[in-house]
Amino acid sequence: MPEASYSQPIEKLLDQLGATRSGLTEAEAAARLGRYGPNQLQTAPSASPWKLLAEQFRNVLIITLLIATVLSAFLGHGIEAVAILVIVLFAVLLGFIQEYRAEKAIEALRQMAAPASKVIRDGREQMIPALELVPGDLIAIAAGDRIPADGRLVEAVNLRMDEAALTGESLPSEKDFAVTLPPQTAVGDRRNMVFAGTSAVHGRGIAVVTGTAMLTEFGRIAGMLQRVESEKTPLQKNLDKVGASLARAALVIVVIIVGLGIVRGQPFIEILIFGIALAVAVVPEALPAVVTISLALGVQRMVKRNALMRRLPAVETLGSTTVICSDKTGTLTRDEMTVRRLYVAGLDVSVAGSGYRPEGELKIDGGSGELPQPVRELLQAGALCNDATLDRSPEGEWKISGDPTEAALVVAARKAGFDERDLRNRFQRIDEQPFSSETKRMTTVHRSDATTFAIVKGAPEMILPACSLALDASGQTEALDDSSRRDILEKVELMGRDALRVIAIARKEGSGAGDAADGLVFIGLAGMIDPPREEAKDAVERCVAAGIRPVMITGDHPVTARAVARELGILRKGNVLAGVEIEAMDDRALGEAAGSVEVFARVSPEHKLRIVEALQKNGEVVAMTGDGVNDAPALKKADIGISMGISGTEVSREASAMTLLDDNFSTIVAAIEEGRGIYDNIKKYLTYLLSSNIGELGLMAGATLLGIPLPLTAVQILYVNLATDGLPALALAVDPAEPDIMKRPPNDRKQGIFTRPMMALMLAGGLWSMLVNLVLFEWARHSGRSLSEAMTMTFVSLVLIQFFKAYNFRSEREHVFRKPFANKWLNLAILWELVMLAAIVYVPVLTTPFGTFAMPAEDWVIVVGGALTIVPVIEMTKWLIRSGRL
Ligand code: ATP
């Protein structure tokens, strides 16, 4: 048995894996991928199309109908039996296509949401889908990364891992790459290894992959799936229930109709087939699939607008969102930091230039000339306590890698002629404390000849209290007295008011990273601008119009935050709450305050959870963005957790319901718009479907109660169901959004989809249809026409009424004549159905099974005239809705 990865010296293990410290070559990686297969846990294969198709027949009603039909064929009703079979097959096929598409759409989503991983190949760091990792690959690990495979650490700095998913241990475990462990060390004690399925909470490291897919520790105990969950949405669950009670109610009515029919002496098998056909028609069995399709299709549209949904239920919640809490940096702003001003030893330095191009003059108090020593020291220190680098692409574009705040410091240093790579070679880094949003500071320790020194940079109020000395204009240290402290704080405030993010930089001689907590020498301040995203301003406006409150959450100073928020239009009343104030409040006080706060500043990730909870207690439906590991709890708690596709950590993405592929605030608003549209369409579909069913069932029940013949045959009723439930209903599910969709308040989540206006429309449409058809049938019967002529007229009238309703129900409030033909799918569907209708009425092979007759023109006039009355009835209902009476 080969020796375990953790009990070998690193070099020997690398040899054994055929790996090097600059990573595999692309060619080798590709070859290995062929050999080892994708890095993916084996999950249950998705349902095969055949299985899905077979499931469509597992419907008691359909089975009974089929059996009864076969029976009736033997009793001499062969032609009707064939017609029924054909229609049922079509209905089943339609159901299958719907479910298959839904399944495929969800599968595609799963693939899109698949995790990515940072690897080093050919000496370059790059992102690849975690699926493509192979043994021997080098993976770069940073706080917030989900580990995609098992690996042995070859480098680690303060790396701490959350291994709870694997070992159950809730405390983070410290990693150490330098140790070699004895064989048989338990998984939880393998300090030099990282494992698939766990995540980094702190520090960074590099590991060589030792096992992928089912060969990882995780694969061995397998089970957890990294994929989009296909749980049912609240609406789906609700509709399942509604569907079940409707089915029960419908069945009772059907039983009554059949019972009365038998009592009145109709042939048993005929009335039975009729009853079951009616039940098949009115039980809304397609409901769940259509809802899934609407959701899934909507989700595909969202991806085109850069919003990737990771959980279907969130699509519905989007439509009821009342508050969006958004991070500032990168989401509302461009995250392209540029240092504009420095403040060193009482000197104000302006920095020219924009973006990452390292060109621009540094001017002291407005004049040019040689930069004094302390300014040079500030720039050098800023580039040293820093992990970002600047490069020029072959096309001549300047590109950064690393954190934009740090990149801004690198660019500023380059403008003064200091190259970060030279500096980092000259002053080797020997220790570090990485930046975190909690401490808001970062420390690095460097060696210079025989001595060592530490550099600390971070938020001024975190750094300044630890400083006891400061640099003077000649570069000497002097005591930092209260008046200079005040001056510095005043500068911080002034820079903040100009929307600058301020970083303070300090140093300490001969210090390790751990003890650079006090006695620091203050070097200076750097103020950088991060311009707001142009499109965010517009999106903020749209939010407000849509009754959604945009709230900014930022780690930045309140003054900076206020300035940026004002520019974006988020700050209207001027309510800013700082992290320290949140800490001083209990949950109740925070709840009261949160109702009107527009900006939360200087907050840490743990405040975010409290903010979400406070808002939710106030009855808000909260969307919240987050990118770091520590944001995960807030993202989970929020009604819609939103993660970042570009800058976010894998852990935050997994905790979220939606990922912004472009990290852009306006994408959230676009997603909400889509969410509202999807919800609207499901509602339209539902109104149409249920109203049609009420019309059909009402007609039959009415005729039975009146003791008159049944107005439709089994074949006809099945056809009406296929024609209306089928294409037109589907077309409504993809109806274009109404223009006022972002001008009305969010959907009320408590009220659900069955709002009063919706019920009113459904009932008005259904009952009027019943009435018109009963009257028409009775009149036709007594007008000297035969029963089958009267039935044909009723059949055509019912179908036409449903088609008119499809157009009418495209809006709850707007009248039907506003862009009536905007939905081209609906137009096509109706056109097709009209052709079919004409064929059923006129083509001889069809008239026999359908029991129709060729209607003369005058009958058409009567039927169309009667059917058209549905339009004013629904329009009047809409008018009552608009005027607030319904
Ligand atoms: P937002 O929450 O809007 O996205 P943010 O997450 O960028 O803002 P933090 O990253 O928590 O906010 O930054 C808070 C403060 O920490 C900044 O105002 C700055 O003073 C300081 N800071 C940010 N980045 C660094 C860094 N790399 N090194 C040292 N200090 C930093």
From TrEMBL:
Gene3D superfamilies: Calcium-transporting ATPase, cytoplasmic domain N, Calcium-transporting ATPase, cytoplasmic transduction domain A, Calcium-transporting ATPase, transmembrane domain, HAD superfamily/HAD-like. Residues 4-77 form the Cation-transporting P-type ATPase N-terminal domain. InterPro entries: ATPase_P-typ_cation-transptr_C, ATPase_P-typ_cation-transptr_N, ATPase_P-typ_cyto_dom_N, ATPase_P-typ_P_site, ATPase_P-typ_TM_dom_sf, ATPase_P-typ_transduc_dom_A_sf, ATPase_P-type_domA, Cation_transp_ATPase_P-type. It comes from the Bacteria. GO terms for biological process: export from cell; proton transmembrane transport. It is a multi-pass membrane protein. It is found in: Cell membrane. The chain crosses the membrane at residues 57-75, 81-97, 246-265, 271-299, 685-708, 714-737, 758-780, 786-804, 825-845, 860-881. Keywords: ATP-binding, Cell membrane, Membrane, Metal-binding, Nucleotide-binding, Translocase, Transmembrane, Transmembrane helix. SUPFAM superfamilies: Calcium ATPase, transduction domain A, Calcium ATPase, transmembrane domain M, HAD-like, Metal cation-transporting ATPase, ATP-binding domain N. Its main location: membrane. GO terms for cellular component: plasma membrane. One of its GO terms (molecular function) is ATPase-coupled monoatomic cation transmembrane transporter activity. The keyword Acetylation does not apply. Belongs to the cation transport ATPase (P-type) (TC 3.A.3) family. Type IIA subfamily. This is ATPase. It comes from Chlorobaculum limnaeum.
